[in-house]
Design goal:
GO terms for molecular function: phosphate transmembrane transporter activity. This protein is mainly α. About 70% of the residues lie in helices and about 0% in strands. The chain folds into two domains: about 100 residues, no CATH class; about 240 residues, MetI-like (MetI-like fold), CATH 1.10.3720.10. Helix 4 packs parallel to helix 7.
């Protein structure tokens, strides 16, 4: 009597079929953590340590998981599948490890900064004549938006036009020289940009004590321009040459091809690069501390007097604590949380802009 196998018969994941069950990795991971946790529990109960080692349990348990999963897969599924599972586990662990500092940073900032962040006066008052608890960071928020906004207005046209030149027109020594200096500028320390802006305006106005918001915008633009150039250049290079050639074949001039074809096609990537550059400089403290200074009062004039920004506000609150030190520390955490919220909102706006204006490829 013959047994027929239909094509629709489900494949059972069993050890006898030469394949581990679907939930095997999670089971092995949980068992590894339990085994290592039991070892550390015995060490803790014996009095050798003062507390249970959670970090050691997770780390050594994960190491044991990689080894155990590889061995189980090797004996059941073979060498090729075992290597694949091992590499997959290592990549996943590396991703989780990379996320741990970010989650820890955001979580710590939210926990410590939320109480002062939720006070009504934090977004409606400055620190003028405030000693101890009270006041807010309105002057720093306004200063950050003004200084960073002007730096963006300076950097985006220069960086984008430079990227267009390097991609569409640049050839020879000039293009290589620009590329070299852009690479050099990408790695300069932020304090060097602040010293450059301070020295420039000190010489122009013959005032060694000059401090104003526009100088901070110039310092930030020095840091933003190479990021905008590099990111925009890479996005422009991704535009297929066939699109350019099709436009040229229709008699469209080169400059109009760039405006109507190249830039709209790469708009999503360019906007993302601009947001990365803003995120790169919005938290800079050293250049703004040097050339923009700090103040406890409101200042809406970028070209006159000192202007407070959120990074400098956080630094000043932590470094110059008064009698009620906890109030200063709470305001510092709230300022850091405000910076994170601003960057998050900017990225959301950038995604909306990129989705709205990027070319629709669907038919």
């Amino acid at each position: 009597m013959s047994i027929t196998m239909t094509a629709s018969s489900p494949v059972t994941n069993s050890l006898t079929a030469g394949k581990l069950p679907k939930n095997a990795p999670m089971m092995v991971l949980a068992a590894s953590w339990l085994v290592v946790g039991a070892i550390f529990a015995v060490i803790f109960l014996s009095g050798a340590t003062e507390s249970f080692n959670w970090a050691g349990t997770l780390f050594f348990g994960t190491v044991l998981y990689c080894i155990a999963l590889f061995l189980f897969s090797y004996f059941v599924e073979g060498t090729r599948r075992a290597k694949d599972r091992l590499v997959t586990a290592l990549v996943t662990i590396a991703f989780v490890v990379a996320l741990i500092p970010l989650i820890s940073l955001v979580g710590t900032t939210i926990v410590n900064g939320l109480p002062a962040f939720m006070t009504p006066t934090f977004f409606t008052e400055s620190q003028r004549n405030v000693v101890g608890a009270g006041g807010g960071a309105l002057h720093a928020i306004v200063g950050t938006l003004f200084v960073t906004g002007l730096a963006t207005l300076i950097s985006v046209p220069i960086g984008l036009l430079t990227a267009i030149y390097l991609t569409e027109y640049g050839r020879g020594r000039l293009a290589r020289g620009i590329t070299f200096f852009v690479d050099v500028m990408t790695g300069i320390p932020s304090i060097v940009a602040g010293l450059f802006a301070y020295a420039l305006f000190s010489l122009l106005f013959n005032d060694p004590g000059i401090r104003f918001g526009f100088g901070g915008s110039v310092a930030l633009s020095v840091l933003m321009i190479p990021v905008v150039v590099r990111s925009s250049e890479e996005m422009l290079k991704l535009v297929p040459n066939e699109l350019r050639e099709a436009a040229y074949a229709l008699g469209v001039p080169k400059w109009l091809t760039i405006v109507k074809v190249v830039l709209p096609t790469s708009l999503a990537g360019i906007v993302t690069g601009i947001m990365i550059s803003i995120s790169r400089v919005i938290g800079e403290t050293a250049p703004l501390l040097i050339v923009a200074g700090f103040t406890a009062s409101m200042n809406y004039d970028l070209f006159n007097e000192r202007m407070m920004t959120l990074p400098v506000f956080v630094y000043n609150q932590y470094a110059s604590q008064g009698a009620d030190s906890q109030a200063y520390i709470d305001r510092a955490w709230a300022g850091a949380l405000t910076l994170i919220v601003i960057v998050m909102l900017l990225n959301l706006v950038a995604r909306l802009v990129a989705r709205t204006f990027s070319p629709k490829l669907g038919r």
